[in-house]
What does this fold into?
Amino acid sequence: MEPFVFSRATDPGKAISAAAKSSTAQQGAEVRFVAGGTTLLDLMKLNVERPTQVIDINHLPLADVERTSDGGLKIGALVRNSDLAHHPQVQRDYAVLSQALLSGASGQLRNMATTGGNLLQRTRCVYFRDTNMPCNKREPGSGCSAIEGFNRTLAILGTSEHCIATNPSDMNVALTALEAIVVIRGTAGERRVPIGEFFLLPGDTPQRETVMMPGDLITHVILPPPHPGARSHYLKLRDRASYEFALASAAVVIAVEGGKITHARVAMGGVGTKPWRSPEAEQALQGQLPNEHTFATAAVAALHPAKPQSQNGFKVDLAQRCLTHALSTVVA
Amino acid sequence: MSEDTSSVTPLPVVGHQYARVDGPLKVSGAARYSSDHSFPGMLHAVPVCATIGNGHIDAIDTRAAAAMPGVRKVYTRENIGKLYRVPKSARDAIIDERRPPLEDDVIRYYGQYVALVVADTFEQATAAADKVKVSYKGQQTPNVAVKLSADERPKADTERGNPEAAFASAAVKVDQTYSTPPETHNPIELHASVATWDGTRFTLYETTQAIVNFRGVMAQMLGVPSENVRVVTEFLGSGFGGKLWPWTQAMLAAAAARDLHKPVKLVVSRQMMFHNVGHRPQTQQRLRLGATHEGKLVSLQHDYVYHRALECDYSEDCGEATGFLYSTPNLRVTGGFAERHVGPATSMRGPGAVPGLYALESAMDELAIALKMDPVELRLRNEPAIDESENVPFSSRHLKECLTTGAEKFGWAKRDPRIGSMRKDGLVLGWGMAACSWIAERFPAAASVTFNADGSVRVASGTQDIGTGTYTVLGQMVAELAGVELSKVNVVIGDTNLPPGPISGGSMATASLVPAVAQATRDAIDKLLAAASEGDSHFAHAATDQLAFAHGRVYRKNESPDSGRRFEQVLTAARRGHVEGQGKSEGTFGQPGKKEYSSHSFGTHFVEVTWQPEIARLRVSRVLTVIDAGRIINPLTGRNQIEGAVVMGVGMALFEETHYDKRNGMAVNSNLADYIMTTHADSPDMDVVFLDYPDLKLNEMGARGIGEIGLAGIAAAITNAVHHATGVRVRDLPVHIEDLLASKVA
Ligand SMILES: Cc1cc2nc3c(=O)[nH]c(=O)nc-3n(C[C@H](O)[C@H](O)[C@H](O)COP(=O)(O)OP(=O)(O)OC[C@H]3O[C@@H](n4cnc5c(N)ncnc54)[C@H](O)[C@@H]3O)c2cc1C
Ligand code: SF4
It folds into this structure.
């Protein structure tokens, strides 16, 4: 770990202007906010994150869950994952989010982890976490160790020849299916970024993961009002029964009217370089009968663009099963 | 020796359930583990690890590190001071990595210690260790290939008859190869050393399953007489074999303490645990079984290869149980090794037998299927009358009863052998079973037992409790022999200043302690009777041989024991503070000469898995284990050992495997998030049945060990159940989702 200056933010404006001095908000940032610390401190101990300044944002007034005027939900960036998962309105209107949160990490970690921190958690690619190995995400241009190495857990969708790292979050998959809005306050004021535009594909700049700019503070996540009549579900598949990142997961929001699917939102986790929304699957579902055949067709469509690596070809089949099962569960 | 001590019956304490006596200390945080020891002026050491897996150190630049805040000294080969080797032949100083740390510039495995930073705080030492610059030369790709073929001609461990010919002409055959991956011990307590040196004597607080051996090794490696080394392990946060023999961080800490004249603490990191402190080596095993149509084995061949680290000669004896588990006139077991650029391998819970029985019991299942015979029946038909490998009778063997009891309690008769045919609550069920075995022997042991005038009894032995319950069962033995309440027994262990006790390994600590403790108790009783005769007016004029002892009381032989006096009254009357007895027993393990008996524990596992084909989800739902391990001294701690082993077995079958990167030999999953082990949510419903037949040939209580047998066979029982549920036969552990996706069961 490198020495760093630690301070506690009492006011968002000051935190933002302090963080704005960083040359980047992506890999290599000199200034980092710390919320739950469950990603940041881990990576600092591994020398993967080496901020010279760490600003504790835990005392900012961003820990509330409020209703929005249109019937949606405004979630403060500091709301803990366990509190959000057990929030009655989340359980009732956004079951997929509650289920996704509870499938992640462990009870202790969820008690620390925050909404903002979870959005920005980093990949679990083993080479990203080891400074002795080349990694384009950690050190741009140094090469990707995973392509020729251990890649069983890595992505099959959205990859590039420069990086195949998975976005490991469960919460983000649910937020993607729910079409959440990320509210960011920066030096130029507030912006509202749809989650579909928040994450970037690795391309030839895998060190850039999001649209976050120096100084940017995530203040809230907004969930649009629940789609009338829709039901949602999250299914996570992994080697063991708990405390493991997804090999494949699916978040689905489906409404059925008059025997036909009238609303379909599909996102997948564990398989993409970002939380993976599948327009192909949604299209295959829209207007169709909610039966096994439709679901299987949607699953095949969702995985159509997949490009497996040497060890993770099984994820194509697994993700298809995952999505099919999530869909049949949600309409059951 | 008093004749009447044998009348200390019925046995009120042994065989009964007692919660761990050290439980309150542990749950309240008061139990002091090795790294909890701290001393004024103590310094912290952090090793620097090689980042290549094969090559040489070119240069080490320590200047930047040495200039960091709080740094006292940076050690390399140049300045670590004299460290010596232990001879291979040393029986009282066993170590798997015999090369002292920093001895030369050769890098034999990724993560090997190349330097050591000592600073005022752990944080300072960690930061400075990052700044030590190591450059390498002659770097080559390490060999960590997964496929194994023996480097030298494999040697026959045991053989009889003509196995090739019998196999060639057998009516029904199985010829398959099974493999198990490298597994890393992950006890929750990290290996740690706190070393102090007073100019002459070392006192070392270590994480070890064998304090006496540790002292032997450290005396040799530090080049000092063994009386100048004291090793202390009050509590151990488990070891699973990984803490049997010393590892090189201990010499680094001691060498730094010697040089700096300060106590030095060194705690190995979780990542280092994957390279520097042993692992279960990878194995590859070919099994050839030939049988008659009636299911009688006519030939059994077991040829295994395991990987071995450079300059280490640990061997994984996969054929440990193969020679005697079943009856067959023709048999051969051979073993060989393949060298790899990996850290040293060592014993992991049930070494040899655990991977070996995975292979043998999988092959037996495949044979049963080939014969269209029930797997329990196949095993019953091959029950031997004697140990056919050693040609001696078994001291006590009840495998048949383990098979029949297990089958009955599990409901095995309801099993439909057709693949994927059993269903429950929308899930496919798979039922599998396997037999298991583990050695039952004794190590040498010494102990003392003291009756105190305050009514307490002390038992002392230089052994250790590795979390298995030695404090409790040792207390129970003495409570029983001395006729006092368990709460009155003070168990003192974990210090080499005490009479040398057994290692906590091979599941032999309990069995080894019985004779020594019994003898020490008898000796203490003799001394107590002498004290009564000599100094207690109540027994005036009674010669020692007219007195007897039972249930904590001294009495006249011609009167009833109830008329006697409690030992504390006797001691008080005789104005004696205490009387102390000594006991000592020889070991049976590894002794030369032919044995009269073959001593082993036996058991069976019956397993149910659930399979959800649509999402390729497999879970172990139910395990019933029947164990024949002699007399169970404490069914509570005993059951805990078996259940713990079953949980570990679920991990062995389904999750655990260390991946070494083929480019540099680094364990890529060297943390507890990426090295997958069983969680609570993965733990099945477990039931344990002990047959409880005393093995009186082994010791007078008839107690054998139970620490390891529970892990033997369980992986095969699980993969056999997986086959029954899914039709997929997994011959390379662990079972992956990848394998199961091939299942045709819908
Ligand atoms: C062992 C382990 C297992 C895990 N398993 C899972 C799992 O199964 N599924 C899963 O989804 N997750 C899992 N996680 C990840 C966990 O969910 C994340 O670590 C957690 O959500 C991060 O939240 P935090 O508040 O602790 O973030 P921090 O570590 O505090 O911050 C993470 C990053 O976000 C930035 N940041 C935080 N808040 C803000 C803000 N408001 N504005 C701008 N930047 C901000 C920080 O600067 C930092 O760069 C696991 C983690 C561990 C350690
Ligand atoms: S996959 Fe991405 S994160 Fe992993 S090594 Fe390659 S570049 Fe780095």
About this structure: The first strand of chain A starts at residue 5 and ends at 8. Residues A 32-40, 42, 57, 77, 104-105, 109, 112-114, 116-118, 120-121, 168-171, 217-218, 245; B 673 surround flavin-adenine dinucleotide (ligand 1) (CB under 6 Å).
